[in-house]
Amino acid sequence: MIDVLIAGGGPSGLALATLLAQSGMTVRVLEPRPSPSTHSRAIGLHPPALEVLDAVGVGTAAVAAGVPIRRGIGLAGLDTVASMDFGVLSGPHPYVLSLPQSHTVRLLQERLSAVDPDALLRGTAVDSFAPLDDGVRVSLTENTRGPGGQLDGPRASKTLSARYLVGADGVDSTVRRQLGLPFIGRRYGDHYVMGDYPDGTGFGSTAALILHREGIVESFPLPGRLRRWVAWRRPDETADLSALVLGRTGHHAAAADATMNSDFRCSRRSVPRMAADRVVLIGDAAHEVSPIGGQGMALGLLDAAALAPLLGEAIAGAWSAGATAERFSAFSDRRLRAAARAGRQAHLNMMLGRPLARRPDGLRRTVLAGLARHSVVHDAVARRFTMSHGF
Predict the structure, then answer these.
(1) Which of the 8 DSSP states describes residue 237?
(2) β-bridge pairing 120-122 and 27-31
(3) pLDDT, tens digit, for every residue of 195-218?
(4) Cβ(242)–Cβ(253) under 8 Å?
(5) Rounded to an integer, what distance in angstroms lies between the CA atom of residue 28 and that of residue 361?
(6) How far apart are CA 15 and CA 272, in angstroms?
(7) What is the reported pTM?
């Protein structure tokens, strides 16, 4: 019997698998996609997330590949109205690392393969599962290899048994649906558009929030001399990010040069509990927060880091059945509190980015400048923004 089956080969699933494999447990990651996504997706790795990557063994490689953001500025036209220095943070990573999720996944996959070459099963998806006396029986389908050796052959069914099943399979989690757990929350009315473009701003490794009466435009550095732009837009407004960036900031982001463009909305949802008997949910399968602020990937990595030792002790038989259930319940409570905290922060970030319909935009400038001017407030906001306390 396998120790732990993990549904989902994203950052949280791969990180958990590697932590478990490093400690000597048998693990299999079931990932439906036959090959990794090349979409940049999330880019922010906050300091506590980087410490998880250190524990996994890929932190140094991630920092070498990414762009450490040590400073953020707020701009109104050409004037800097606020500045935030992440150098005030304690710990080994006093910055937010900008690295596309696709690259983070590649590093994690390579590390897992080095620890256990058989751990990742691509083209394999969970269909259903049922309890056993000492574990979980999982029914799955997998792609077989076609004549060219690719995972494009006929689908085949099989079963695997494990002591624990972990659902790290995202917001549309099959594992969560099979458990019958509700995903409670709401979808926001806000619309956003984002894209990655060659960087012609001169901002370098600094993150910039550009204030505008129609909504803040966010700008972050990326590896390869690229820049991520994110803009709030009205539902009836153009989704042409190049036009929005030019109109609100004066910077040129040529659509023809974009390496990625995406139009999206945001939700804030969570399950009432993350553990049910021998099945546990982590990451977006358990809680979804708005991506404004970039906390979602970090939350999933922190879930993985918290769950790994708990699974190890449970599988080793360290506690009675009742005590084991209590510890998984406590894990769930702690991680859902962290997700709720992140959700509140993301909601505040969204509010700051919305248009000020009946208020002068100078009010927003004054508030941001005041937050950055006072050292105690500045340091507290820097810690909160970078998830350096309470997550």
Answers:
(1) S
(2) parallel
(3) 999 999 999 999 999 988 888 899
(4) yes
(5) 52
(6) 24
(7) 0.93
